[in-house]
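Lay summary

Proteins are chains of building blocks that fold into shapes. Our project writes down both the chain and a compact code for its shape. Here are two examples, one after the other.
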Amino acid sequence: MPVYRPADRLVLPPVDAEKYQTVCHYCIVGCGYHVYKWPEGRSGGLLPDQNALGVDFTKQVAPLSGNWIAPAHHSIITERDGRRYHIAIVPDKECVVNKGQHSARGGSLGSSLYRPDGPTHVRLTHPLVYRATEQVPTTWDDAIDLAARVIYGSIQRDGNNSIFMKIFDHGGGGGGFENNWAVGKFFFNAVQTINCSIHNRPAYNSEVHASRDMGVPELNYAYVDAELADTIVLWGANSYESHTNFYLVHMLPNIQGTTVNAKKDARPGEQVGPGRIIIIDPRRTATVVVSEQAAGKDRVLHLQLNPGTDIALANAIARVVYERQWHDKDFVANRVEAETVQPLLDQSLQISKSLDEVLAEAEKITGLSRTQIEQAASWIAETKSDGTRPRAIFLYEKGVIWGLKNYENIGSIVNLTLLTGNLGKPGTGCGRLGGHQEGYVRPGYPGPRPAPYVDDLLSQGQGNVFYVVGCNPAVTTLNAQRMRETLQTRGKLVRDALDANFAADNATKAQAILDAVKQGGLFIIVQDIYPTETAKHAHVVFPAAAWGESPITSINGERRLRLYEKFMDPPGIAEPDWKILGMLAQRIKALAQADGNADIAQRFSGFEWKTAEEVFLEGGQSFADGVKASVERYKGVDYAFLKAAGNNGIQTPVTIVNGKPQGRVRFFENGEPFYTESGKAKMLPTPWPGFPAIVQEQINKYPYFMTNGRNNNWQTLYNDMNMPFFAERTPLPYIEISPEDAKKEGLQPGDIVRLFNDYGETMAYTVVSNSVKPGVIFMLFAHPRATTNSLTTPYVDPAVIIPYYKGSAVGLQRIGRLADLDARLTYKPTNFDFDKVV
């Protein structure tokens, strides 16, 4: 493994370099960037009037000024016509999201670009079809024809629901509004299957059904609210690493006290001061340590609860608030459906029991002290000395979304928000922090709620076609070992059929495939930018365009809609997802017409798009009007408007006022109705459910509770594994184990361990850290070389079919050491709390 050596000098963009606007394609924060492009062989000068940045490089650039181009900001690309260009991608100082800062992810955007002479040369460049025992490159017409014949034949013979799919539903690098509309139109309107699932989930669902059912769309706040709150509540989120610039640019200044004047302006007549932060996480994360070091421990409360006990904690905090009469009585009386209050008091707050009984039970379940629970309630809701109510913003993410009982997890946090009246005012809000950016616009899903558990059905032999786009279920789905076995065994029956018909034309091969799936086979189509683990099992692979290779639009966590301009060609003959699905639909339509099947031909009509903006505008017309608009509603906006709006864009939902698009900063201000029939919010009973039997069985059998999460790497490392800066820092996944447990197991930092339970096994190297309590192990998730999801159970919340990714139990075995890792890695704790590890 080579050691990454960044360049020690770079050329500057000349003053006449092409300039594009874009947004980082990684996390939901959505930082703004400028892209400079100029021909190889040219360079700008050192003086301000000689380079596009307008910076005097004859002098030392000030630290943290943003006035430079780092090696990871830069690349040299080769266009389809063979011409080569420099690309430099630098943060936009005028963008209100990041204000010129970048995260580790955004700061490496240049390195993520395709270049045939660099690490990203492994991108998919041509369609692949399984022939002669391997995947071989072919033309678009050939690959599209085979896939179309199988899909069309399967629908004809076995019905719409014989087609299964697992596809992204988000924005940013994952697709944007353009590709999402194409996906929805193809599978919901044309194929009309109910057997759909979303990239990280085994069914077609929302990760926040509870919040929506309660009338609270999940992206209801603005980033500025984190600057204006008295208390920030981070629940199941490590924002320093996962939402870096939301934390650094908007949260951290608040708890450091530098936003007090902004609070005075936004909240006149109220007592304000430096903010405080409550971090609810079973790990002592980098966010906890950085917050304590930057703002002082007196402004930070870390509730290091036992994994999976969030519902019990939220209910206990709410009970203290209610018992102390700190709840917002006017808000509850006027903005909440009255009939939903008593069930909350009875089932969640357990008002039939004394406070002492409730808190004693909560202490036992959560592992937290009564003092900690009461302190959290006080910081959130205790009336200030001037008689005004504190303002709190509740921000949650995968720790609860993928936690025990997704529906009640989310509902319990929204309950606490409603009880304390923390919606509809500056400095308040309750919503998810998000993973990817958002870009959801689709026709209505034709299936039921809860939707079919697609992973389970596939493992049972159901489904003829499995179409996977922009995700990697062989690594990331729950019980991933089962998924890999399904793809391998069922896919082999189709490979055997193709091998037996190697000399046949596509029509004959398609029939052979249909015969094979009748015997339990599975025809697998993968559409992606890299040859993923899932793609290795595919019979047809479509190469897709990535970020920067086709224009897209998305919204970030505060619903800021921007245009991500195209600035380079896709590799080889790769195409945008919307175009691939358009070609496939048109071919299916032609097959149906040739058969005289007018119904299917009509269903697959209307896919003749020529540009990305056509798809964007068509999707926009699907949004309904009215105050209770879809969070993503952008109807009335076009690319020209977004180009002019720059990297600050417009916050959705958009309303057209006097012919001009108008955005919305936050929801529920000035009596704006909640998203229910009554216009009032609903409270939700969320009693503590205990662990499901399938999970409890593993807890009883194995010594360590295993949770998981991200670090500065992104998701499945689909880009990172081809970017030396990241790949060399995390060549394998790691576990974090407490010093006490490491001593008990005889482990040293860097030891390779095997983790196992009744569902699978995986490997990792060891980091000894105080980030976890004894009895708990944390593992980096979704690493392609060894995935934690091989150890997750198949349990899902039955109400919404959301997996419990964060909960399993494992055994551990030391394997040994890898000398090459010892030479290159430090094995230091990732939370920076080095002096606490013995």
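And here is the second example, written the same way.
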Amino acid sequence: MLKLTGAAAVTGVLVAAVALPAVGGAGMTVNAAADELRLLPEELKEPPLAEKTTLLDADGKQFAQFYFENRESVKLDEVADVMKTAIVAIEDYRFYEHGAIDLEGTFRAAVKNVSGGGVVQGGSSITQQYVKLVLVNAAETKEEQDAAIAPTLPRKLNELRYALAIEEKYTKSEILERYLNISYYGAGAYGIQAASRRFFNKPASKLALWEAATLAGAVQNPSVTDPSAGKASRDRLLVRRNTVLNRMAELGKITPQEAEEAKKKKLGFKNIEAPGGCEESAYPYFCLYVRQEIATNEDFGKTRKQRERLLQRGGLVIKTTLTPKAQKASEKAIKEYVKTSDKPVAAQAMVVPGTGAVKAMAASRNFGRNKKKNEISYNLVGDREHGGGAGFQAGSTFKPFTLLTALDQGMKLNDGFTTGSGYRAPSHSAFRNCKGKAVGEPDHEVKNSSEGGGGFKTLTTGTLGSVNTFFMRLEQEVGLCETVKMAKNLGIKRADGTGLKEFETFTLGINEMDPVTVSAAYATIAARGTYCSPMVITESTDRDGKKTSYKPKCKQVLDEEVADAASHIMSGVFTKGTMTEVGGIGRPAAGKTGTTDAYTAAWFAGFTPDLASAVSLGDPRGAFKYDLTGVTIGGRYYSYVYGASISGRIWKDSMLGALKGVEATPFTPVNMERFGGCSAGRCAPKPPPKRDNGDGPHDDRGNDRGDRGDNGDGPFGPPDGGDREVNGGFPFGPERRRPDRPARPVATQESRETHSPRNARPGTPGPGTPEPSSPDLRRSGEEGSHLRGLPPRKDVRRAASGGRQAGPVRPARRDRPRRVRRPSGSRSS
């Protein structure tokens, strides 16, 4: 009753102040009242309506959208005439005849409301309703929203002042267009276009009579007639629709027959979902990266709050670098080797050298919050700044940064030195971090994955063999800080956003990384030393059609010829290194496997001049607690998982698909005048003269050890000095088997014991905190199963034929995982 009294009083004041003619003394009193109320036009601030932001792939196809309110504003000529007629008929049939206030309607509504004992009919004009919706839309707090709709005299007077200004500022058609776009229709649909699609799966320009009447009826009280709320609400909306049809017939806008025919139609609500956010996207990890890029990139606003508001309300159309061909190739390859139900997760990024354009981001697990479905709710491909977790230790994928440092300092392809099976820093000061602090640990021994003897290794053979002791010695030679700086120049930073760990084992990949960052770093080598920040957005178009283009952010961080030399060395990984069994991709390519200490993560990162990519594999539940030993992944059992076992195969298959139809680009040849040969004091020692042992010219005994060739052109990586990843060049090389079949059992109990995994490092890292991993004896190709404690080739043949072995089987110590203490250490391979 109080509300009705207040409404009547407001109506009386408005009519007295604005409507009554000024006649004699009475008129002067009314004019004085109007002056006192200051009923003059007042400018209304109209903030842009919240509109959805759309993400497009490189081909222009939508793959995600964000919105605070599901709205897509349209011009009035994009709305069916029957919709315009219906909304005016039911909400303000004298809209084109009156000014800011409909006096006749106000009187009529006041009388009906008072006589009816309730709010029977609204008296606000469409212009007044528009003003109220603008105020509600601009409110940022609940208090401001409540004030915008409060049934008070001050609010009504303000509304009228704003309405007077709106009537002066816009034409009737412009006001109607704005009203249709700002109105809420229920079911989460804001604006006539979104409502048309949500209710009837068609644009507003195609609405039929009965559909237009439905939407016109929904505006009055959408919370009561929301068709998505249930049958009762749909029944109320149907009644409301028929009321609109009757009103249109009453006003002569349609015939009674047309009204009756329309009323025979069912409601026809199609409940078309309007997916919003990355969870509903076809490419959720790429979507997450873009969303966070907008939130953190000052190109989209000065503050994070402004940027996030722009994303949710700005109505942007953002074209991205995502290429469906590369994305599908990545998804297909991952699906081939890792199931969505597997706990270990594979993640991959693809980056274009020379631009930084990210072509694909994919992971084996679905994005979401349903733990029963094994979904994951953060970005497995990106760093924490882009919605990711803490990443996984990168293992031997870090060794190329030490290689680049050595080449940059003038070392040649065949420069090297002799190393043993273990390495200890000669002093604390042998390694200094970039703050000058001595971080060498003389009491800590780094082992090769094998525990055999060492040998002479060069930049080429040491890299292809992934020899831990060689790289520790090399890092000592070139400097820890210099190696860290090289990595940073190539964009390396920890996935969790903290500073890089600068310990002596930096070269072994003790820092947790994400695939995007590693891909961009390797793309730098492919681009001959040009580093480009990862780039996911190429163009944005605002609600007014203004386009903004975004260019690659690149800089030369490395001598071109140094990058060429590194590419030359790393290209041997497919023929003489740890990817020998997996093989190459039929075009110039280079890369590096990475298997971390205790088998906690497995990587492969590689590149061609046209595309770079990195694949990680680890268990986000905690990589030390859940390592990659004795695991079933993709339906295949693995005793140990190495970088080439799964990650390398994913890389190969996905790169073949992504580059299909792309003409192969060769690497720039290495400058042999600068990098060929070896430097004085760093050349391989001359081999001792051969002794005739009576076995004839074809005897191959004794040739399966040592560094056979320092020019990188021949087999290498002896079991007594090489990293466990090495599998090339041994006469009793990797067993050949199909990847979908389990490896054959270990030959002897001795070798089984030799290869039993050690206990994982204590502690339970948080989600996405991969800790070091190691190799897999289940022959995936990254490391040789020839090092399993099996007898040499001749003895294998004799055993197969039933003959007695010539001697005892030497334990396969090369495959043997050995835990050694190190600061967040990593034995990489």
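What can we say about the second shape? The mean pLDDT is 79.
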